């Protein structure tokens, strides 16, 4: 058990630390981090998903449908519930509630999951969980956030409101969305690409997790951190409450243990950087967003270890 935990958590800690050190040493600036993230989102990560799904036998992919549905549904549900709790129970403004909902409902599964999930749940389950998280984030959460944030932006903002329908259509054009869809269709039709081609694509795809974690470490250094009550509440919800409640829900609906373990571990991953990106773009609580990302990442070493041990 200890070896599994170390295998999962050590890459996260080491690469995060290297990125943090690179920021401290001024090896990279904010513009260069944006370039790194762009490379990951447009090339490395789509290729990583494409190769991972394509290498998954059709029978195994069919067995993973409950996992995909679980991760997708729970991420969407936690985002919506967190938004309404923040807006109507804690009476925060609409823009702040939107970002808080995204922080709680959108774990960094695409990036951190690529590094830590395969040793714990296997490559096929990890690929399916990551793809489901990407679909939830890109097709549901991000379009809704763009719409809500643009709607509540100041009149002088350069961003104009865009409908959810147009946001979804725009999202479908992104490689990170159509690449896993195309790979899934190939597997369903039982079509196989040459191994030498997949290995060639995987050469860049394998860099996705490391580069993304490295860039996140630089972002964590660059942002000023302030630990406030809203930050602590958001982190507790993201790191502990959502995975724990999800565990209970999946047990109640009778999901197999392997599916529950894979989903809970995926949903225990800390806050995703997309929340900070949107906060900066719309100038909404940027310091709170960065502080939430920082505290969630630090505490995840403990909380994720807890869920790894409990679901083993």
Automatic annotation (TrEMBL):
Entry keyword Isomerase: no
Pfam families: Mem_trans
Record keywords, A-Z: Cell membrane, Membrane, Transmembrane, Transmembrane helix, Transport
Primary residence: membrane
Top-level taxon: Bacteria
UniProt entry tagged with the keyword Acyltransferase: no
Subcellular localization, as worded in the UniProt entry: Membrane
Protein's UniProt name: Permease
Annotated organism of origin: Novacetimonas hansenii ATCC 23769
Upper taxonomic lineage: Bacteria, Pseudomonadati, Pseudomonadota, Alphaproteobacteria, Acetobacterales
